[in-house]
Amino acid sequence: MILSSCKDDIEMDGLFAIKDNPTKLEAPADGSTETYTVQANGTWKVEPLRKENWVKIESVEGNGHGTFTVRVSKNTDPEQRELTLFFTLNGKLQNNVLKIEQAGATNQGQVQDPYLKIDGLTNRLEVLEPGITGQYILRSTSKWKVMLPDEIDWLTISPMEGEGDTPVSIKVNKNTDIERTANVLLFLDDVQQASPLTVYQKGVKLQVEGDVVLKEDFNWLSYGSEIFNVTTGETRVGLWASDEIAKGWSSTINTTEGGGSYASIYARPGFIKLGRTNYGGDLISPKLSNVQRTKNLLVTFKAVRYATGDHHQLTVGVKGPGKVSASQFDVMNIASPNSSLESCRAAWQAPEATYSFEITGATAETQFWLLGGSFDQRTGNWPATVNRIFVDDIVVTVGK
């Protein structure tokens, strides 16, 4: 009777063992792969204490005798890391555990190259329409932060700054509209990294005429004065703050002799000034990343001439795919006088301040530019030595 009772207990509880009874996997920094043999008479599972992207388990469950393989990826961090694996049999937790310990990276006394990355992601995260809330490990060698475009309200990253390896949550809301894209800027020790993290989400609707692709009022700029002829405090693009540069608007370095080899566009409170005496400047848009497939676009903007004595030409064009319907405008709208705050504000509101052109065949790689006259406006090379144009309120929509 005693023997019969013991046998019944064993069959009820089941049998589980790992061949040779290993309790620890010690992996080098370069990573390793180990396969283990399970001896069991029921359904078993391998269950990590927590989800980690640096440990991959193949055949996380089985029935009866079988094997599972543990793959440990390369550790680029100097800190050792560890993870414990637990096991269940027929849903019941077993006493067996396998502890994974991986050595930290070493550079034989050399300073480790700085890095900032998110485990499991390269430079693109693609999300379906319902959205996600994903947990990731951001790894870095020092202080880091992320920055989202101001207009993005459907994407949340938490926390947005830290130091060293940090768990982060990336939440993308449900999308009931057209597909959308956000470029998350990454900073390591306050230095912007070359490649952003692009978050792309599919949409349930197709992009149609009138949908807004880009809208910019430049209200994030607060340099200088609203009064046109007060140049004190206006700041050229090369001296803008890093978060302002991160918006993606740029300008061409003016290499004309005597031009100082810098871009000649200037920030004012909520608008841009193109050009200076003898030298022109262009404003280049960010890539129109919200464009789906290939589209025709309508670009509208406001422009005001600096003063009556300035030349009045504004040229436009594209970088990348697409062609413009008009390449030149005569900006005759001015503030009179340009030393009055009221007249300067009124100039922006005048009907003749609004201009538009079309871009046919644009894609997400297209950029457009606005140039105040010519890069070389020195005497004899241009009708006037000044061709300064103020620009604001740019809106790009899908056209016909």
Walk me through the topology.
Elements: H1 2-13, E1 16-18, E2 24-27, E3 32-40, E4 43-48, E5 55-58, E6 61-63, E7 66-72, E8 81-89, E9 92-102, E10 116-118, E11 124-127, E12 132-140, E13 143-147, E14 155-158, E15 161-163, E16 166-172, E17 180-188, E18 191-192, E19 197-201, E20 212-216, E21 235-236, H2 242-245, E22 265-268, E23 271-274, E24 282-284, E25 295-305, E26 313-319, E27 323-324, E28 328-330, H3 341-349, E29 354-362, E30 367-372, E31 389-398
Parallel strand pairs: 2-9, 11-19
Antiparallel strand pairs: 1-3, 3-7, 4-6, 4-8, 5-7, 8-9, 10-12, 12-16, 13-15, 13-17, 14-16, 17-18, 17-19, 20-31, 21-22, 22-23, 23-31, 24-30, 25-29, 25-31, 26-28, 26-30, 27-29
Q: What does this molecule look like?
A:
The chain has 400 residues and is mainly β. The chain has three domains: 2-102, Immunoglobulins (Immunoglobulin-like, Sandwich); 116-205, Immunoglobulin-like (Sandwich), CATH 2.60.40.10; 215-398, Galactose-binding domain-like (Jelly Rolls). It has helices spanning 2-13, 242-245, 341-349; strands at 16-18, 24-27, 32-40, 43-48, 55-58, 61-63, 66-72, 81-89, 92-102, 116-118, 124-127, 132-140, 143-147, 155-158, 161-163, 166-172, 180-188, 191-192, 197-201, 212-216, 235-236, 265-268, 271-274, 282-284, 295-305, 313-319, 323-324, 328-330, 354-362, 367-372, 389-398. The strands form six sheets. Strands 20, 21, 22, 23, 25, 27, 29 and 31 form an eight-stranded antiparallel beta sheet that branches. A hairpin with a 2-residue loop joins strand 17 (180-188) and strand 18 (191-192). The protein is elongated, with a radius of gyration of 31 Å. Residues 1-12 have low confidence and may be disordered.
